[in-house]
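To assess whether the prediction recovers the assembly geometry, we first specified each molecular entity separately, as shown.
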Amino acid sequence: MICSTSFSWARSLALLAVFALLGGCAAVSASGRAIAEVDRPRPKIAVFPVQNLSGGVAPLEEIRAALVGFLEADCGEVVGEKELQAVMAAERVRNVGGITGPLAMKMREATGADSVLITSLELYNEQFPPKIALLARLVSLTDPPAILWMDSVGLAGDEAPGILGLGLIRQPDQLRDKALRTLVGSLKAHLTGEKGSLEAARKFQPKMAYGIVSLGAEKKYRIAVTPFFNFSDRKYAGEIMALHFVDALQKFDNIEVIEPGIVLEEMLRFRIIMEDGFSKPAAGNLFVTLEPDFIFSGKVFDYLDYTGEWGVPVVDFSTEMIDGKNRQVVWTSKSYNAGSDGVFFFDWGRVTTARAMAAGMAQAISGLIAQ
Amino acid sequence: MRLVKIVLLVSLVVALPACSKMITPYHDQNMDFSGIETVAVLPFANLSGQRNVEGRVRDVFMNMFIATGGVYVLPAGEVARGISRIQIVEPTAPSVEEIQKLGEVLHADAVITGMLKEYGEVRSGTAASNVISLSLQMIEVKSGKVIWTGNSTKGGISVKDRLLGGGGQPMNQITEEAVSDLLHQLFLG
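The predicted structure of the complete assembly is given in tokenized form:
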């Protein structure tokens, strides 16, 4: 008995020593990172007003103000509100969901910023449990503008209730700040050179996929992602789905996604109205002006988020990709998932927002296309 | 005597399905299907009573059809352009002349029209399940003749649904099963 006690004491001491050493390693690593951050020049970022794709009323200015606060603390200098408004008024900027080459150059000259942060609000619900979903991308202020970073976040207040509901988030502001911190954390990680995961959960793989194209690693393929044709009841589902694909595709090294603001500008210039999808002449116009290797489009049939505690989000869409060489469809897929897919015990693995599923499904398809 | 009765009853149950009428798919025996390379799938007619579901079924069919690798299926946007260009009054049931004009505009060898007869939930007593019933026909552009017809019904209330409940299979799943059945009828007769 005595022997056993002394052995457990020795084991505890050894464990403590290991933890102490591990802590020491972390401290060294953190201080190393801190030095690297000091050396790296802090970028100057212009933050566009938040684009509202939620289909409802949302405190956009408050979200932007909170985002600016987190950015200034973690990532770099942010262009002042008055300075940005002056440029936007002078250039008569109406679309805050994208940027074109000439506007990017004028913004750079007027504000001295290197890049612009374009944020889209996908979902905002204050009713318990509160829900929020955001997409954000950092675009260079160059002509043509290039997507430097993109990510999305979607949270629900009851996502991780924990024991006795201690993990529930009841205040929308608290959830908003958590979501914004996640986004800014991702941007900060990108600025420090970290790379995110390209893996998608198995349940998000497309139910059916057909492709006669293989993208090699030796070349960077230009892809124009156009808004999806919306058959669903959710307003802006086509735009949201397209943004998830922009996010997913741009993560691959062999793919360059054309800034959606430029694509939209060209579609408006040619007065392209999609009837059931892309026609050959409509695609032809984009191929001539934007010179992409592929045009990526699709149809959304369901993009459903639920309100309140009980419900299941549903996402159902199909995609198609047209090749610039022969103007033929070289990729099609069909995906559908519900938030309860693969859930068997105690809501373990339940997905609470359509954003989480859409992002996973887009990631899975992009992985198949890119590799 | 009792054994004879049981045997007769079992034989009756076994023989009953023979009385059911099964609609067989039609293939034009004189048609060389290998000559069909490009196909335009027109919007399906919707008799189901559910709004906008024909687009979903058409999309699944187009995706699965192109995925066979046997033919090139024109994108829906291109078909819509053709329809508006030659001003087809009723795209779900075009005339022979309209099909021939559409084929010329789109450079398609054949056109597929379809009819969605049932889609959604069916109820019988306390049991409920999903059902789909779809019929398609392929028309050759050159001759304007119907060269293939097929139909499929999937889902519905099974004995299991009646006994255990559960609501049957999801709509997407039975749609894929029905389309897969139709493609099987088209390619394998």
